[in-house]
Design goal:
Elements: H1 2-48, E1 50-56, E2 59-72, E3 77-82, H2 84-89, E4 95-100, E5 103-112, E6 123-129, E7 141-157, E8 162-164, E9 167-174, E10 177-182, E11 184-188, E12 192-197, E13 204-208, E14 219-225
Parallel strand pairs: 1-14
Antiparallel strand pairs: 1-13, 2-3, 2-7, 3-6, 4-5, 4-7, 5-6, 7-12, 8-9, 9-10, 11-12
């Protein structure tokens, strides 16, 4: 009986040792694989350059939006108030958009009141969404109302801009390397922005891959927006 118990103990110990050994082997294999992948990536970058996406700068029209708050009137109609300056530049049919759960909902202004609201000192407007949307009761809805279209602008995505100590920069691809340039910002609409100074038509501005690059790094263009 005693020998059987000893056998069981030895068996369980052996099984536990085997199990731990298998776990250790798998862990080491994963570590070696990760190291090999990192080395492979570094060698790939050294040989061909770090992958980046770019936008080729061309003149384009740029929509300027102003953010205002609105309240829901029914499933498809919103109500808001605007200043006299905004009232002067919008008309019925002016487009707007809002975001719900990262989805963009478009719409149009359907009415602009000419008389000021005495309580708010602002001008009432009504807006119609393209799709019905139910918001929680008493929600304040943030919408982006188009107020202006700038012609022949030099535009980059907001994510391309680097801010350092109050100054703004972009990376350009020049002869397969990235160079850092100071820029002066213009109007922005939340997704894109106008650059007034620091870029020119034909420049290749980095839009993705910024976290991997430093000034002077060798790069290869993975995707190019507006290169066609």
């Amino acid at each position: 009986m005693k020998s059987k118990n000893n056998f069981r103990v030895i068996f369980y110990i052996a099984a536990a040792v085997l199990f731990l050994t298998v776990i250790w082997i798998k862990k080491e294999a994963i570590i070696r694989s990760d190291k090999a992948e990192i080395v492979s990536t570094m060698l790939e970058w050294q040989k061909h350059g770090k992958p980046v996406n770019v936008k080729k700068i061309k003149k384009e029209d740029f929509a300027v939006y102003v953010k205002i708050s609105a309240e829901q009137i029914d499933d498809i109609i919103l109500g808001s108030y605007v200043t006299a300056n905004i009232k002067r530049v919008i008309k019925e049919g002016a487009p707007f958009y809002l975001r719900v759960d990262n989805k963009k909902i478009n719409g149009k202004v359907i009415n602009v009141q000419q008389n000021i609201n005495l309580n708010s000192g602002l001008y009432p407007i009504l807006l119609k969404m393209e799709k019905a949307q139910k918001f929680p009761k008493d929600s304040i809805i943030q919408i982006y109302l188009k107020t202006q279209m700038l012609k022949d602008s030099l535009v980059i995505p907001t994510d391309s801009l680097i801010e350092e100590n109050g100054e703004y920069f972009v990376y350009k691809v020049v002869e397969n390397k990235v160079e850092k340039f100071s820029v002066e910002m213009g109007k922005a609409n939340g997704e894109d922005l106008v650059i007034k100074k620091g870029i020119a038509i034909g420049d290749m501005v980095v839009t993705h891959g910024l976290s991997k690059i430093s000034n002077g790094d060798k790069v290869r263009i993975y995707k190019c927006q507006m290169c066609d």
